[in-house]
Amino acid sequence: MQQIYVAAKNNEGNGQQSLVQQSAVKTKNDGMEELKKKLAKKEKLRKDFETSLQKLQEKMQQGQNNNDTRKAQKIISRKIEDFKLEEASIASNILQQQQQQQQQQQQQQSAAATTKEENATMIAPEAKNTAAQHASLEVKLPPVEPPVEPPVESPVEEKNEWVERISTKQKMAMKKKKKKKKREEEGEEFYFNQRSINILEGLTLYHNVISSTFEKELITFVEDAIVDGQKGNLLCNTFMQSTYTDHVEKTKGKGRLVLQYGSFYDYANHEICPESLVQEMPPIFVKLIDQLIEKRSLPRDVRPDTAIVNVYRIGDNIPPHVDHTDYPRPFSTLSLLSTAEMKFGEFMRPKGKGLFDAPCSKTLPTRSLLVLQGYGANITKHCIPRVSERRISITLRKMPKWAADRTNQYRTRAMSEKEQKKEAKIQNVRELVVEKNRAATKKEEKHGGSGKSYVSSSSSSSSSSSQQRQQRQQQQQQQGQRTTRNRLLTGIDYALFCNSPFDEEMLSGRKTIETRGYALAPELTNVKIAIIRCSGKAKRENRKPKKVVGWIIFQSSKKYKDEQSWKNDFDKHGVPAGHPEYGWNGRPKYGWSVSSTGRTKELEVPCTEQYGKTSFRKLCFL
Prior knowledge:
By secondary structure, this protein is an alpha+beta fold. The chain contains 13 helices and 25 strands. The strands form six sheets. An eight-stranded antiparallel β-sheet has the order 1-4-16-11-18-9-6-5. Strands 20-23-22-21-19-25-24 form a seven-stranded mixed β-sheet.
């Protein structure tokens, strides 16, 4: 009876355990099947993306290689990488579950073996006393129940769970580090859809492109250059102060401090001016460009050779604009000293006091590089609203080929003229010394003494001076047009840029009033001013080189009150009211009355320095 009772209890316990185990195995099998289905689905999607990537690469090889195709290629390749990572994680989960199932099966087998041994030990002593048990059948034996042990969680499982938690934390930290490193290396791309167009297409932001120590070096260099520029120690237009106008309140602000290296950009006329010389690129900027190219933040084939440094004081801003289209893309801007907000939009409205209303904005942290190309650089405008902290930005661009060639020509010419000027000064000093020697010899001859030695020295010095005179004459003959230009422009300190054919109208006398959007400065009235002919806003290939064609003297300046007064002087200025560029547009118009003009033969434009935010230039003969 005891054997039967123990067997029944064991069967009952085994039955309950088997039901629980069967349900657990069933749920685990269902989870495994779901994971396998998910894995198959991901593999199918990845294969579809790989086929589409192959088709796209074939199109690019056939010649359809533009920004859209390159962008699509980048997106598809990233998707494929994401699918591969997801497949690997799912496969690892499946493998872990299979290992857990094997461990559970082994534990069940070992538990079954132990229960069999325990049953055998309980039944063996009772089998020896079978006769006594049969004799005392009437005695009721107490029910013997097997000891129920409380379920104890194995320390190994706890350890495994803790290890899994640590590994997940480490994985999350590794993912964050990888994402940060990827953002620093590959850059952060921007998206903002407006009318189903990504207006920020082509913009990439790179974080921490330079070290903090190198940032300090750049800041100290800029600060020293600003001090030198304010003292007048820099070449021509290297340093300038750019003013801005508040379009809402009609007030002028103090504006940014600007340093230009490599080539000069005219903010007033929005054009590149190779004839206005600036300092060459300093070594610290060359080092900066090398570092950015090594980090692959900038491409090697569009290496920058010109830089504009903007120093923002508290309250300064830069209005909405699109950088000149002659500059090759991409170009970049480096932010130093403090973070700033840059706003983007095809259309932006001023809100007053250096603020602008734009559809989207991005934050530019310190030591970050914003690279601009594509739609975001050519069509979308960008601006920096009023800043609350001092800020420095360095814009790096590559000069177009025509501007680089002409800048080199003007630079070599300026250096030769500078050397000639130095030689002329030295020659004047020598001539003064010779004349003093002659005067001394004459005195000695009158009063007696060692006159022979003075005469001999003076004769030798006069012979050397005659040789130097001959050399100087030869140099002037070789100079050719430059000397004639300087001779014809003597007494003329200022020049006026004038678009063709209005220059010819003024020189012929048909145009007696020159119309502009600003008043004539009092110091420029009754002064001879050189006329420099420009090609206006013609296409680059159709533009002609700028040349001096004559001179003009303005007598006075007046402001037109309304459109009718403008039309009344049509016979004098010759500009129709409906002209798309120079006609009446509601803004203030001024008329400068011409008193006299004169022609010269066409001369090369000398080096010029910007005179305020006007079309006037100051001539500087180096």
